[in-house]
Amino acid sequence: MYRCIRKNTQSRVKKGNKDCRFSFPRPVSCDTFVAIPTPPPENTPLATYKKAAADTLAVVWEAVNTSEEGEAVTDVFNRLHIDQQHYEAAHCALARKNTVIYKRNIAECWVNPYNKDLLRAWNGNMDIQPVLDVYSCIMYIVSFISKAERKHGDLLRNAQKEAKEGHLEPVQQLRKLGNVYLNSRELSVMEAIYRVTGMHLNQSSRQVVFIPADRHAARLSKPLKLLSEEDDNIWMTSIIDRYVARPTTPDFENMCLAVFVRDYRVKDRTTHDTDDIQDMTDHETSGTLIPFKTIWAQYRKELNLL
Q: Which residue of 118, 205, 249, 285 shows the fewest CB atoms closer than 10 Å?
């Protein structure tokens, strides 16, 4: 469990503030509960309502910081003459959104939420938190994928400096910066070792095929060299189009889309396989070559190794 203990380093403190940006230390509690924003009672000013709640939590924090080793949360509450219900109401009064407050002893204020079974298998730091609203989920994903890499800016500055010293044209300078931006990224030590030693980053015994079942799914357009002024269809043939134009034999008549995508593939007429399973005896008479305007596709059933 020591791997899930947080320490307040300089990188965890907000700029110009002494508070940790990850909200450590975490509040203590006798029970796990969800702090739901609660309006003040009637005839009670909002400022007075929030100040009373803030004073209650401040008193609890002061008592926690001055508590003796091994003292329980219930002992602190009894010493302050408050109960768990009063403590939860103070959190609800100050909450800006639904927040989970875990059951936590005084000695666990610096411990991340964890699962003991996963922690034993992972043997590293983890921070398991529930997502209570859609906005928080979207913000977390967007913030994670748009997280800036510290070395990326240095690479772009060096590339711009080299482009200026090389007296390149503005278009060439922009192309050079674009190549650096698209082809450069920061690697962790583990990934760098994997790539240098030629080890596999990922491996799977199953192939996954995405089926665009959405009616308004994005489609790829045909290359310009395949388009003509008389061509009304500018889109590439999708899996759905091939499924609709499948052979009209009994084997294909009642076949669902998932089975069709799993067991059949598009075979280019210029490709000659040497590991064909069997001759297409059952489907030759009904025609297995299906025209898709610019592509003749042949469907061949592959080995099912499941």
A: 205
